[in-house]
Amino acid sequence: MTAAAPAALTSEQIGVLARAVSRAPSVHNSQPWRLSVRGTEVDLLERREVELRRHDPFGRDRLLSCGAALTNLELAVRVLGRDCHTAYGTDVAATVTIGRPHATSARDFALYHAINRRRSHRRPFFHGRVPAGVRAALVAAGEATGVHLVEPGRLDKLAELLGFATRVLRDDRGYQRELELWTAHTHGWGALGDGVPEDALSPEALPVAGLVRGGTPVPDDVVLAERLAEESLLVVCTDRDDRADHLAAGAALQRTWLAATAKALVGSVLTQPLHLTGFRARLVSELGLPGVPQAIFRFGYPAVPAAPSPRLPLGELFPPPGGSR
Ligand SMILES: Cc1cc2nc3c(=O)[nH]c(=O)nc-3n(C[C@H](O)[C@H](O)[C@H](O)COP(=O)(O)O)c2cc1C
Questions:
Q1: Which of 62, 120, 270 to mutate to test the pocket of ligand 1 (most atoms within 8 A of CB)?
Q2: What tens digit of pLDDT does each residue of 313-325 get?
Q3: Which CATH number applies to 11-119+312-317?
Q4: Looking at the predicted structure, is the pLDDT value of residue 185 above 80?
Protein backbone atom coordinates (compact mmCIF):
# COMPACT_ATOMS: atom_id res chain seq x y z
CA MET A 1 0.00 0.00 0.00
CA THR A 2 1.47 3.42 -0.94
CA ALA A 3 1.10 6.40 1.40
CA ALA A 4 -1.20 9.23 0.26
CA ALA A 5 0.51 12.30 -1.23
CA PRO A 6 0.83 15.31 1.12
CA ALA A 7 -2.33 17.44 1.00
CA ALA A 8 -2.30 20.65 -1.07
CA LEU A 9 -2.57 23.93 0.84
CA THR A 10 -5.98 25.48 1.44
CA SER A 11 -6.57 29.17 0.67
CA GLU A 12 -6.56 29.95 4.44
CA GLN A 13 -3.17 28.28 4.77
CA ILE A 14 -1.83 30.22 1.77
CA GLY A 15 -3.03 33.39 3.55
CA VAL A 16 -0.96 32.45 6.62
CA LEU A 17 2.14 32.03 4.45
CA ALA A 18 1.51 35.32 2.63
CA ARG A 19 1.15 37.29 5.87
CA ALA A 20 4.39 35.85 7.23
CA VAL A 21 6.33 36.65 4.03
CA SER A 22 4.91 40.15 3.86
CA ARG A 23 6.24 41.06 7.34
CA ALA A 24 9.88 40.23 6.48
CA PRO A 25 12.42 43.06 6.51
CA SER A 26 13.62 44.24 3.09
CA VAL A 27 16.00 46.77 1.63
CA HIS A 28 14.26 50.19 1.75
CA ASN A 29 11.06 48.25 2.56
CA SER A 30 10.84 47.44 -1.16
CA GLN A 31 9.35 43.95 -0.49
CA PRO A 32 11.04 42.49 -3.59
CA TRP A 33 9.28 39.13 -3.56
CA ARG A 34 6.23 37.28 -4.85
CA LEU A 35 4.71 33.89 -4.10
CA SER A 36 3.48 31.29 -6.54
CA VAL A 37 1.70 28.25 -5.09
CA ARG A 38 1.27 24.99 -7.04
CA GLY A 39 -0.30 22.26 -4.87
CA THR A 40 2.40 21.53 -2.30
CA GLU A 41 5.13 23.61 -3.95
CA VAL A 42 5.60 27.27 -3.03
CA ASP A 43 7.93 29.36 -5.17
CA LEU A 44 9.42 32.47 -3.66
CA LEU A 45 10.06 34.74 -6.65
CA GLU A 46 12.51 37.63 -6.72
CA ARG A 47 10.95 40.82 -8.13
CA ARG A 48 13.96 41.89 -10.15
CA GLU A 49 12.10 44.96 -11.39
CA VAL A 50 12.75 46.45 -7.93
CA GLU A 51 15.91 48.33 -8.85
CA LEU A 52 18.02 50.43 -6.51
CA ARG A 53 20.76 51.44 -8.92
CA ARG A 54 22.68 53.58 -6.46
CA HIS A 55 22.15 51.65 -3.22
CA ASP A 56 22.13 48.09 -4.51
CA PRO A 57 23.41 48.01 -8.12
CA PHE A 58 23.95 44.22 -8.15
CA GLY A 59 20.72 43.25 -6.39
CA ARG A 60 22.50 41.55 -3.49
CA ASP A 61 20.30 43.27 -0.85
CA ARG A 62 17.26 42.26 -2.91
CA LEU A 63 18.31 38.62 -2.52
CA LEU A 64 19.14 39.07 1.16
CA SER A 65 15.59 40.39 1.55
CA CYS A 66 14.21 37.31 -0.23
CA GLY A 67 16.30 35.17 2.16
CA ALA A 68 14.67 36.90 5.13
CA ALA A 69 11.23 36.27 3.58
CA LEU A 70 12.19 32.61 3.09
CA THR A 71 12.84 32.20 6.83
CA ASN A 72 9.35 33.57 7.55
CA LEU A 73 7.82 31.31 4.89
CA GLU A 74 9.45 28.16 6.31
CA LEU A 75 8.39 29.06 9.85
CA ALA A 76 4.80 29.61 8.73
CA VAL A 77 4.74 26.20 7.00
CA ARG A 78 6.05 24.49 10.14
CA VAL A 79 3.56 26.34 12.35
CA LEU A 80 0.81 24.99 10.08
CA GLY A 81 2.02 21.58 11.26
CA ARG A 82 3.75 20.55 8.02
CA ASP A 83 7.27 19.44 7.23
CA CYS A 84 9.09 21.27 4.42
CA HIS A 85 12.15 21.11 2.24
CA THR A 86 13.74 24.14 0.57
CA ALA A 87 15.77 24.28 -2.64
CA TYR A 88 17.42 27.46 -3.88
CA GLY A 89 16.89 28.18 -7.57
CA THR A 90 18.07 30.48 -10.32
CA ASP A 91 14.79 31.31 -12.06
CA VAL A 92 12.91 31.39 -8.74
CA ALA A 93 14.73 32.47 -5.58
CA ALA A 94 13.68 29.29 -3.80
CA THR A 95 11.05 26.55 -3.84
CA VAL A 96 9.62 25.28 -0.57
CA THR A 97 8.11 21.81 -0.95
CA ILE A 98 5.54 21.08 1.71
CA GLY A 99 5.55 17.60 3.16
CA ARG A 100 3.62 15.55 5.65
CA PRO A 101 2.11 16.58 8.98
CA HIS A 102 4.81 17.29 11.53
CA ALA A 103 4.54 18.51 15.13
CA THR A 104 5.59 22.17 15.45
CA SER A 105 8.46 22.71 17.89
CA ALA A 106 8.14 25.25 20.72
CA ARG A 107 11.11 27.08 19.21
CA ASP A 108 9.40 27.46 15.81
CA PHE A 109 6.26 28.77 17.54
CA ALA A 110 8.33 31.35 19.43
CA LEU A 111 10.11 32.54 16.25
CA TYR A 112 6.85 32.62 14.28
CA HIS A 113 5.20 34.78 16.97
CA ALA A 114 8.16 37.16 16.76
CA ILE A 115 7.49 37.83 13.03
CA ASN A 116 4.86 40.50 13.74
CA ARG A 117 6.75 42.03 16.65
CA ARG A 118 10.07 42.41 14.81
CA ARG A 119 10.75 45.84 13.37
CA SER A 120 13.74 48.00 12.50
CA HIS A 121 14.62 49.85 15.66
CA ARG A 122 16.75 52.83 14.58
CA ARG A 123 16.91 54.28 18.08
CA PRO A 124 19.45 54.25 20.91
CA PHE A 125 19.24 51.18 23.13
CA PHE A 126 18.72 50.99 26.86
CA HIS A 127 22.13 51.14 28.53
CA GLY A 128 23.34 47.75 29.57
CA ARG A 129 25.06 45.11 27.50
CA VAL A 130 23.25 42.04 26.29
CA PRO A 131 24.57 39.10 28.38
CA ALA A 132 27.16 36.85 26.70
CA GLY A 133 24.88 33.80 26.89
CA VAL A 134 22.11 35.63 25.01
CA ARG A 135 24.57 36.90 22.40
CA ALA A 136 25.84 33.34 21.89
CA ALA A 137 22.25 32.09 21.42
CA LEU A 138 21.67 34.70 18.70
CA VAL A 139 24.86 33.64 16.91
CA ALA A 140 23.71 30.01 17.09
CA ALA A 141 20.26 30.94 15.70
CA GLY A 142 21.82 32.36 12.53
CA GLU A 143 24.71 29.93 11.91
CA ALA A 144 24.34 27.65 8.89
CA THR A 145 26.65 25.90 6.47
CA GLY A 146 28.73 28.63 4.85
CA VAL A 147 27.27 31.42 7.04
CA HIS A 148 29.02 32.84 10.12
CA LEU A 149 27.93 35.52 12.58
CA VAL A 150 30.84 37.34 14.11
CA GLU A 151 31.12 39.89 16.93
CA PRO A 152 33.51 42.50 15.53
CA GLY A 153 36.67 43.09 17.56
CA ARG A 154 38.48 46.26 16.44
CA LEU A 155 35.71 48.84 16.98
CA ASP A 156 38.20 51.67 16.35
CA LYS A 157 38.74 50.32 12.83
CA LEU A 158 35.02 49.72 12.29
CA ALA A 159 34.30 53.32 13.39
CA GLU A 160 36.95 54.64 11.01
CA LEU A 161 35.41 52.76 8.06
CA LEU A 162 31.80 53.62 8.93
CA GLY A 163 32.69 57.28 9.45
CA PHE A 164 34.34 57.40 6.04
CA ALA A 165 31.31 55.71 4.40
CA THR A 166 28.92 58.14 6.11
CA ARG A 167 30.76 61.15 4.70
CA VAL A 168 30.82 59.68 1.17
CA LEU A 169 27.12 58.66 1.18
CA ARG A 170 25.95 61.91 2.76
CA ASP A 171 27.60 63.96 0.01
CA ASP A 172 26.59 61.70 -2.93
CA ARG A 173 23.69 63.61 -4.49
CA GLY A 174 22.63 60.84 -6.88
CA TYR A 175 22.54 58.38 -4.02
CA GLN A 176 20.56 60.76 -1.83
CA ARG A 177 18.03 61.41 -4.62
CA GLU A 178 17.33 57.69 -4.89
CA LEU A 179 17.00 57.36 -1.11
CA GLU A 180 14.51 60.25 -1.06
CA LEU A 181 12.35 58.38 -3.57
CA TRP A 182 12.07 55.53 -1.06
CA THR A 183 11.32 57.76 1.93
CA ALA A 184 9.21 60.59 0.49
CA HIS A 185 6.04 58.74 -0.53
CA THR A 186 5.33 56.85 2.66
CA HIS A 187 3.05 59.42 4.27
CA GLY A 188 -0.41 60.84 3.67
CA TRP A 189 -2.81 60.13 0.84
CA GLY A 190 -0.17 58.98 -1.60
CA ALA A 191 1.15 56.26 0.73
CA LEU A 192 1.57 53.02 -1.18
CA GLY A 193 2.63 50.54 1.47
CA ASP A 194 6.30 50.34 0.60
CA GLY A 195 9.31 52.56 1.33
CA VAL A 196 10.75 53.66 4.67
CA PRO A 197 8.47 55.99 6.70
CA GLU A 198 10.07 59.16 8.05
CA ASP A 199 9.06 58.12 11.59
CA ALA A 200 11.07 54.92 11.24
CA LEU A 201 14.25 56.86 10.45
CA SER A 202 16.41 58.52 13.06
CA PRO A 203 17.75 62.08 12.96
CA GLU A 204 20.73 60.89 15.01
CA ALA A 205 24.25 59.98 13.94
CA LEU A 206 25.57 56.46 13.26
CA PRO A 207 25.20 53.76 14.45
CA VAL A 208 21.63 54.76 15.35
CA ALA A 209 20.91 56.56 12.04
CA GLY A 210 20.77 53.33 10.04
CA LEU A 211 20.33 55.06 6.71
CA VAL A 212 22.65 58.01 6.14
CA ARG A 213 20.83 60.96 4.57
CA GLY A 214 21.92 64.43 3.47
CA GLY A 215 21.53 65.88 6.98
CA THR A 216 22.86 62.95 9.01
CA PRO A 217 25.41 64.21 11.54
CA VAL A 218 28.83 62.56 11.33
CA PRO A 219 30.42 61.91 14.73
CA ASP A 220 34.21 61.83 14.88
CA ASP A 221 35.74 58.37 14.79
CA VAL A 222 36.49 58.23 18.53
CA VAL A 223 32.89 59.13 19.47
CA LEU A 224 31.54 56.62 16.95
CA ALA A 225 33.79 53.87 18.38
CA GLU A 226 32.46 54.67 21.89
CA ARG A 227 28.89 54.46 20.64
CA LEU A 228 29.55 51.17 18.88
CA ALA A 229 31.00 49.81 22.14
CA GLU A 230 27.68 50.53 23.90
CA GLU A 231 25.77 48.33 21.44
CA SER A 232 25.87 44.64 20.58
CA LEU A 233 26.94 43.95 17.00
CA LEU A 234 27.09 40.95 14.71
CA VAL A 235 28.50 40.84 11.19
CA VAL A 236 26.84 38.24 8.95
CA CYS A 237 29.57 36.72 6.74
CA THR A 238 29.46 34.06 4.04
CA ASP A 239 32.19 31.75 2.72
CA ARG A 240 31.45 32.74 -0.88
CA ASP A 241 29.61 35.61 -2.55
CA ASP A 242 27.07 34.20 -5.03
CA ARG A 243 23.25 34.21 -5.20
CA ALA A 244 22.89 31.25 -2.85
CA ASP A 245 25.14 32.98 -0.31
CA HIS A 246 23.09 36.17 -0.45
CA LEU A 247 19.88 34.19 0.14
CA ALA A 248 21.48 32.19 2.96
CA ALA A 249 22.81 35.39 4.58
CA GLY A 250 19.34 37.00 4.52
CA ALA A 251 17.77 33.84 5.94
CA ALA A 252 20.38 33.74 8.74
CA LEU A 253 19.97 37.43 9.52
CA GLN A 254 16.22 36.95 9.91
CA ARG A 255 16.59 33.86 12.14
CA THR A 256 18.86 35.86 14.43
CA TRP A 257 16.60 38.92 14.34
CA LEU A 258 13.54 36.82 15.24
CA ALA A 259 15.46 35.02 17.99
CA ALA A 260 16.42 38.45 19.36
CA THR A 261 12.78 39.63 19.18
CA ALA A 262 11.64 36.49 21.00
CA LYS A 263 14.06 37.47 23.81
CA ALA A 264 12.58 41.02 24.06
CA LEU A 265 15.55 42.55 22.21
CA VAL A 266 15.31 45.00 19.31
CA GLY A 267 17.71 45.79 16.49
CA SER A 268 18.38 47.19 13.06
CA VAL A 269 20.48 46.29 10.06
CA LEU A 270 23.21 48.18 8.23
CA THR A 271 24.14 47.23 4.70
CA GLN A 272 24.34 50.76 3.30
CA PRO A 273 28.14 51.23 3.74
CA LEU A 274 28.94 47.74 2.45
CA HIS A 275 27.97 48.74 -1.10
CA LEU A 276 30.78 51.30 -1.40
CA THR A 277 33.53 50.05 -3.69
CA GLY A 278 36.31 48.38 -1.69
CA PHE A 279 34.44 48.63 1.64
CA ARG A 280 33.90 44.88 2.14
CA ALA A 281 37.55 44.06 1.44
CA ARG A 282 38.71 46.69 3.96
CA LEU A 283 36.26 45.38 6.56
CA VAL A 284 37.55 41.82 6.07
CA SER A 285 41.19 42.86 6.47
CA GLU A 286 40.74 45.37 9.32
CA LEU A 287 38.40 43.16 11.40
CA GLY A 288 39.89 39.78 10.40
CA LEU A 289 36.48 38.50 9.28
CA PRO A 290 36.11 34.81 8.31
CA GLY A 291 34.22 35.51 5.05
CA VAL A 292 32.44 38.10 2.92
CA PRO A 293 30.46 40.59 5.08
CA GLN A 294 26.81 40.77 3.97
CA ALA A 295 25.11 42.74 6.76
CA ILE A 296 25.77 44.28 10.17
CA PHE A 297 23.13 43.69 12.86
CA ARG A 298 23.04 46.01 15.88
CA PHE A 299 20.85 45.01 18.79
CA GLY A 300 20.08 45.75 22.42
CA TYR A 301 17.23 46.26 24.86
CA PRO A 302 14.73 48.95 23.82
CA ALA A 303 14.75 52.34 25.53
CA VAL A 304 11.72 53.56 23.53
CA PRO A 305 9.23 51.67 21.33
CA ALA A 306 9.37 51.69 17.49
CA ALA A 307 6.31 51.58 15.22
CA PRO A 308 5.79 48.92 12.53
CA SER A 309 6.43 49.91 8.89
CA PRO A 310 3.67 49.62 6.28
CA ARG A 311 3.37 46.76 3.82
CA LEU A 312 1.91 46.40 0.32
CA PRO A 313 -1.55 44.74 0.14
CA LEU A 314 -1.27 40.94 0.34
CA GLY A 315 -2.75 40.61 -3.17
CA GLU A 316 0.45 42.18 -4.56
CA LEU A 317 2.31 39.07 -3.43
CA PHE A 318 0.78 36.90 -6.10
CA PRO A 319 1.75 37.22 -9.79
CA PRO A 320 -1.15 38.19 -12.06
CA PRO A 321 -2.57 35.18 -14.00
CA GLY A 322 -0.47 34.68 -17.14
CA GLY A 323 1.92 37.38 -15.86
CA SER A 324 5.69 36.98 -15.88
CA ARG A 325 7.51 35.40 -12.99
C1 LIG B 1 18.98 43.34 2.99
C2 LIG B 1 18.54 44.46 3.88
C3 LIG B 1 19.30 45.62 3.95
C4 LIG B 1 18.94 46.66 4.81
N5 LIG B 1 19.76 47.76 4.93
C6 LIG B 1 19.45 48.72 5.84
C7 LIG B 1 20.37 49.79 6.09
O8 LIG B 1 21.46 49.89 5.52
N9 LIG B 1 20.00 50.72 7.01
C10 LIG B 1 18.80 50.65 7.68
O11 LIG B 1 18.54 51.51 8.51
N12 LIG B 1 17.92 49.63 7.46
C13 LIG B 1 18.24 48.67 6.57
N14 LIG B 1 17.37 47.62 6.38
C15 LIG B 1 16.07 47.58 7.09
C16 LIG B 1 14.92 47.94 6.15
O17 LIG B 1 14.95 49.32 5.82
C18 LIG B 1 13.60 47.55 6.85
O19 LIG B 1 13.56 46.16 6.99
C20 LIG B 1 12.36 48.00 6.08
O21 LIG B 1 12.28 49.40 6.03
C22 LIG B 1 11.07 47.45 6.71
O23 LIG B 1 10.92 47.88 8.04
P24 LIG B 1 10.86 46.86 9.25
O25 LIG B 1 12.20 46.17 9.35
O26 LIG B 1 10.58 47.72 10.45
O27 LIG B 1 9.77 45.87 9.00
C28 LIG B 1 17.74 46.55 5.56
C29 LIG B 1 16.97 45.40 5.47
C30 LIG B 1 17.36 44.35 4.66
C31 LIG B 1 16.55 43.08 4.62
A1: 120
A2: 999 999 877 655 4
A3: 3.40.109.10
A4: no
